[in-house]
TrEMBL record:
Its EC number is 1.4.99.1. GO terms for molecular function: D-amino-acid dehydrogenase activity. Keywords: Oxidoreductase. One of its GO terms (cellular component) is cytoplasm. Belongs to the DadA oxidoreductase family. It comes from Candidatus Pseudothioglobus singularis PS1. It comes from the Bacteria. This is D-amino acid dehydrogenase small subunit. One of its GO terms (biological process) is D-alanine catabolic process. Residues 2-399 form the FAD dependent oxidoreductase domain.
Length: 428
C-alpha cells in the first residue's frame, strides 16, 4: 500500500520505519531540511519506560501555588493567556484527580512498555548507535515527603512489571558517584532500572538512513498546507511542492497537527508545551552524570549523552512563541550546578534550545483511526514522545496493515474525546 507520513520528527520517522518493514511504499513529508529538527531535536534524552507520569496529577494545582510563591516555578504561564492556553489549562485541571491520574498513567505505561520492546527490536534489526546507555534512571528527592508521594506510584508501576528500587543517599551515590557534592542534602531516590538514555536526534537520523535503505522517500523543505477529502476519505495532501496522493495517510505533525487537522473538522486537544535544554561538554567523568537524574523538586532532567550532558526542563505555556527565555537558561544552569557542580567545561556556547512538546491534557498520545477511512493519527506524545516513539510507530504500522494490534487501543485513539464521535458529514 502507498502510505504518506506527514511529519519527520521522531514519531513520523519511526512510523515510516515500521511501515516500510511491513512492506509498504512510504513517503514522508516535512518542511525542515532533515529529520528531527523540531521537538525531537534536543530533548532531555530519557527513554523513561518506568518513569512515565502524566503532567496532570492530584498535587499539581497545589504545586503551582507553591512554585509561584517560591519564585522558581518549573511551570511558567504567560500573563497574556490565549484562549488556547486557557482551554489547555482547564482540561489539564480536569485531569488533576487520583482517578484520572491512575487511568492516564496506566495508558502511558502501556505504550511505554510496548515501546521498549519495539526499540529492542530495532536494535536487533540493525546496528544502531545513538549514544545509548542502559543504566536505568534516578528520580531524586530532597525530603522524605517527596519520597512518600513517589511511593504511591510504585503500586501502579508493579501492575506493569516496571522495576524500581528505593535508594538512600548512599545508594544514589553508588549509581551516580558525581552526586557526592550533595550527599548530605538529598533524601534518596527511586531508580528505574529498566530506563535507557540516548540522543533522540541521532536515533532519528539512524532510522532515517535505514529508511532510505528500505526505499522510503523523504520530501524535505515541503510545507503541508491542507488535507483534501472526498467521500469520507482523504484524497490528497496539498503542499508547497504540489499535491501528494496515497492509499493511506498518517499525521505526525507534533504540536502543529491541529493546524492541519482542524481544517477537516478533527479537533485534537494538542497544546505546544514549550521546554528548554542546554548541552554541555563533560569535564571529568567522575563528576559527571552517568545516566538520567530527574530532580523531582525542580523538575529538571540531567542526562549523560556521550561526552556531553543535556539539561532540560520547564513547562512554558506561551503558545508558539519561540523566544529563548533568559530566565529558563538560568534555571537550567542552576539545575546542573546544584547537583553536578564540577561536571562540565565552562563554555560560552551552551547550545540553548527550545522545543514544543505536543501535549494532550491527559498526557496520552493519540494513535489510531479517524472518522476518515484512510486517515490515521500518531501524535500528541507530550513530554515522552522519544520514549513512546518505537511502540507508537509499530502500533500505527500494524493498524494500517490491518494486523491485530499487539496492545489494546483502549484510551489511546481519538475516540476517548467526546468530540471525536462525530462523522465527517457533520463536521460542516
Ligand atoms: C525540553 C524537552 C525535553 C524533552 N525530553 C524528553 C525526554 O527526555 N524523553 C522523551 O521521551 N521525550 C521528551 N520530550 C518530548 C519529545 O521530544 C516529543 O514528544 C517528541 O519529540 C515529539 O515528536 P513528534 O515527531 O511528534 O514532533 P516533532 O519532532 O515536532 O515533529 C513534527 C514534525 O512535523 C513537521 N511539521 C509540522 N507542521 C508541518 C507542516 N505544516 N508542513 C510540513 N511539516 C510540518 C515539523 O517540521 C516536524 O519535523 C521532550 C521535549 C522537550 C521540548
Amino acid at each position: 500500500m502507498k502510505v504518506l507520513v506527514l511529519g519527520a520528527g521522531v514519531i513520523g520517522t519511526t512510523s515510516a520505519y515500521f511501515l516500510a518493514k511491513q512492506g509498504h511504499d512510504v513517503t514522508v513529508i516535512d518542511r525542515q531540511e532533515s529529520v528531527a529538527m523540531e521537538a525531537s531535536h534536543a530533548n532531555a534524552g530519557c527513554l523513561s519506560y518506568g518513569f512515565t507520569s502524566p503532567l496532570a496529577s492530584p498535587g499539581l494545582p497545589f504545586n503551582i501555588l507553591k512554585w509561584a510563591l517560591s519564585g522558581r516555578s518549573p511551570l511558567v504561564v504567560n500573563p497574556n493567556m490565549s484562549i488556547e492556553t486557557i482551554k489547555f489549562m482547564y482540561r489539564l485541571y480536569k485531569n488533576c484527580n487520583s482517578k484520572s491520574y491512575e487511568v492516564n498513567k496506566s495508558r502511558m505505561l502501556r505504550i511505554a512498555n510496548y515501546s521498549q520492546k519495539a526499540l529492542l527490536q530495532i536494535e536487533a534489526d540493525f546496528d544502531i548507535n545513538y549514544v545509548q546507555r542502559k543504566q536505568g534512571s534516578l528520580q531524586l528527592f530532597w525530603d522524605s515527603k517527596e519520597i512518600d508521594k513517589a511511593k504511591k506510584d510504585i503500586s501502579i508501576l508493579e501492575k506493569f512489571n516496571i522495576k524500581s528500587e528505593l535508594l538512600d543517599p548512599e545508594g544514589c551515590l553508588k549509581i551516580e558517584p558525581g552526586l557526592r557534592y550533595v550527599k548530605n542534602q538529598i533524601a534518596g531516590g527511586i531508580q528505574f532500572t529498566d530506563d535507557f538514555t540516548g540522543n533522540c536526534y541521532l536515533f532519528s537520523n539512524e532510522i532515517y538512513k535505514k529508511c532510505l535503505e528500505m526505499g522510503v522517500n523523504f520530501e524535505f523543505k515541503t510545507e503541508i498546507n491542507a488535507i483534501e477529502t472526498h467521500n469520507n476519505a482523504v484524497s490528497a495532501v496539498l503542499t508547497s511542492k504540489g499535491e501528494f496522493k496515497a492509499d493511506c495517510y498518517s499525521v505526525s505533525l507534533g504540536s502543529h497537527s491541529n493546524n492541519i487537522l482542524s481544517q477537516i473538522g478533527i479537533q485534537t486537544p494538542i497544546y505546544p508545551v514549550k521546554g528548554y535544554s542546554i548541552t554541555l561538554p563533560v569535564l571529568a567523568d567522575k563528576d559527571a552524570p552517568q545516566s538520567t537524574i530527574m530532580d523531582e523538586r525542580n523538575k529538571i532532567a540531567i542526562t549523560r549523552l556521550g561526552d556531553t550532558i543535556r539539561v532540560a526542563g520547564i513547562a512554558h505555556l506561551t503558545d508558539f512563541n519561540k523566544e529563548l527565555r533568559a530566565k529558563s537558561l538560568e534555571s537550567l544552569k542552576q539545575g546542573i550546578d546544584r547537583l553536578f557542580p564540577n561536571s562540565y567545561e565552562q563554555t560560552n556556547d551552551l547550545n540553548f534550545w527550545t522545543g514544543f512538546r505536543p501535549s494532550t491534557p491527559d498526557s496520552t498520545p493519540i494513535i489510531g483511526p479517524t472518522p476518515y477511512s484512510n486517515l490515521y493519527l500518531n501524535t500528541g506524545h507530550g513530554t515522552l514522545g522519544w520514549t513512546m516513539s518505537a511502540g507508537s510507530g509499530k502500533l500505527l504500522a500494524n493498524l494500517i496493515s490491518g494486523s491485530e494490534p499487539e496492545i489494546s487501543l483502549e484510551g489511546i485513539d481519538m475516540s476517548r474525546y467526546s468530540f471525536a464521535n462525530r462523522t465527517p458529514q457533520n463536521y460542516g
